[in-house]
């Protein structure tokens, strides 16, 4: 029996091949969270996934900036932007969800990063907080109160999704054993955890569900 009622939603962030070992922007041990996410899905009646879904000319790709490398910082329309390897290009294998991930109970998928001019880490808003994916309205319209976040990467898309969820007024939970950081800097994952905790996001593990 599902422990979480219809007022709770599980949001699975970006569990796509390019963020898994062997992918273009691989998160170390990212594949280890897949069985954990599969096992927690049965606790939820409402499951949503987000999908990083970039056009090939996306301005977050170092390859689209002469002389720049992944990890370099640029100014993109007034926002500081980390440049990434080409990843999650629309309709490529790297943008697909892991086939090991159970997708059978997903209610909907929200795509992000489709505007080439602005990156979109969060599943709710782009990084300029101008464009919306529709996820916030979707959750509000069906009366969701609690949002549980897991997936990749802990220090980018998971963090931004959880922070936006909290700022939109959802009671927000990060499932810490169902996420992994990309750690451009070694401490990024831990810094992100602290930032989320300081913002009032509850850090829990899959065993607490
Ligand atoms: C992500 C960097 C660029 C993520 C997406 O899913 O965490 N990180 N695009
Ligand atoms: Zn991306």
Automatic annotation (TrEMBL):
State the Gene Ontology BP annotations. Answer: pyridine nucleotide biosynthetic process
Name the enzyme's class: hydrolase
Any one Gene Ontology molecular-function term assigned to this protein's record: nicotinamidase activity
- Gene3D superfamilies, sorted: Isochorismatase-like (3.40.50.850)
Family statement drawn from the similarity comment of this UniProt entry = Belongs to the isochorismatase family.
Q: What pathway annotation does it carry? A: Cofactor biosynthesis; nicotinate biosynthesis; nicotinate from nicotinamide: step 1/1
From the Swiss-Prot or TrEMBL record, give the protein name.
Nicotinamidase
List each copy of the Isochorismatase-like domain by range: 8-207
From which domain of life does this come?
Bacteria
Q: Report keywords, A-Z.
A: Hydrolase, Metal-binding, Pyridine nucleotide biosynthesis
